[in-house]
Amino acid sequence: MALNLLSPPDVKSVSFLDSTKSFHTHALSKLPGGFSLKRKENGGRGIQCSVHQSQPPPAWPGTALPEPGRKTWDGPKPISIVGSTGSIGTQTLDIVAENPDKFRVVALAAGSNVTLLAEQIKQFKPQLVSVRDESLVEELKEALAGLDVKPEIIPGEQGIIEVARHPDAVSVVTGIVGCAGLKPTVAAIEAGKDIALANKETLIAGGPFVLPLAHKHNVKILPADSEHSAIFQCIQGLPEGALRRIILTASGGAFRDLPVEKLKDVQVADALKHPNWSMGKKITVDSATLFNKGLEVIEAHYLFGAEYDDIDIVIHPQSIIHSMIETQDSSVLAQLGWPDMRIPILYTMSWPERIYCSEVTWPRLDLCKLGSLTFKAPDNVKYPSMNLAYSAGRAGGTMTGVLSAANEKAVELFIDEKIRYLDIFKVVELTCAKHQEELVTSPSLEEIIHYDLWARDYAASLQQSPGLTPVLV
């Protein structure tokens, strides 16, 4: 089963993938959206995107230095959690439970898991809570009937926003998934809250809008993703201009050892067999396609200001080195540890401090027991997602959000067995190619959200029929 574009004439003769990481002079071309690709001035190596508006300022321009006197609270650090019943939220609360002298929860926002939310309220006693599904408010109130002191409950999107900008919170952990996390994050930034960032769309889709806003309000965006936390830890105290290259490590996913010619026959169950650990379906498929790493390249660009030619991906099957940086003198710094999301989450909450962790709940890394660490270059034929991500990143503006949204919809279609594995790449490429006609280089928040929804709808409109050959065969 393959894909058939509803309007074949809309597919451009110049593929969206013409703006991939490897460029030659004859490949440079004027693209829609008011921007062009040109060579860098430093020796002519690589390309950069030149737009009418300046690129958004990075959250951490190659170095991380704490500001003296930034602490504004007494006792445990007050935090809000958006997405408290999800994976990030529950792990954050595990950290709070283990360190009650370091952190306290003032507000929680959840989706529809009222039972778990009620348990969290009883244990952590927040002042404010929100449940996205307004129809569940009465059920939540019943679950809290025995409490002497009950939190204020504000349902719906407005409730999530109020949790994010709670006046007592110093930092907000953004664990909510998708573009639903954008408005709460913006509200938190406007209220002067530092962001413990676990929501990818905040920068991948919202970077052109969010980053200038964070600079305006002097808000710190601290990455909770393990790869970006590794980079963030490695740049601590670097002098200005010392960062030369970012090296993102990738496990390689379910098909890292499968010959590329066999990908046309893989099934959903195959893609969900991650060689290292058990995760949700969407992220496991993203690991198999390497779209997760492509999106992390874009996020690294927005976080640290590295140009796309200076961000590399390397396959590291053991997943012990979480990422590396290279400095101008060719030194390479790495952050290592067992794969445990609690470590980067903890660092976003405690930075610039380091909090002692018990060996019982936080096993220490033993390299002698581990034995060996191996690396190999990723295969661009097996993983066309990388070229798509670099292309979208260079296009900038709304293109990166479209890439992410189209991939999310394509993965959903694949998991539902409506398209084949290789069709994921084609859906994303065709959606990005179509979006070149309307690309916005400096979008508003409303435009970012609009094109996220547009990309999902357009990707879903690419119907199944025996007409179109997938991208790799």
From TrEMBL:
It catalyses: 2-C-methyl-D-erythritol 4-phosphate + NADP(+) = 1-deoxy-D-xylulose 5-phosphate + NADPH + H(+). Residues 336-457 form the DXP reductoisomerase C-terminal domain. Transmembrane segments: none annotated. GO terms for cellular component: chloroplast. Gene3D superfamilies: 1.10.1740.10, NAD(P)-binding Rossmann-like Domain (3.40.50.720). The keyword Metal-binding applies. Residues 221-304 form the 1-deoxy-D-xylulose 5-phosphate reductoisomerase C-terminal domain. InterPro entries: DXP_reductoisomerase, DXP_reductoisomerase_C, DXP_reductoisomerase_N, DXPR_C, DXPR_C_sf, NAD(P)-bd_dom_sf. The keyword GTP-binding does not apply. Pathway: Isoprenoid biosynthesis; isopentenyl diphosphate biosynthesis via DXP pathway; isopentenyl diphosphate from 1-deoxy-D-xylulose 5-phosphate: step 1/6. One of its GO terms (molecular function) is NADPH binding. Residues 79-207 form the 1-deoxy-D-xylulose 5-phosphate reductoisomerase N-terminal domain. It holds the Pfam family DXPR_C. It is found in: Plastid, Chloroplast. Its EC number is 1.1.1.267. Its cofactor is Mg(2+); Mn(2+). Its main location: plastid. HAMAP family: DXP_reductoisom (MF_00183). This is 1-deoxy-D-xylulose-5-phosphate reductoisomerase. The lineage of its organism: Eukaryota, Viridiplantae, Streptophyta, Embryophyta, Tracheophyta.
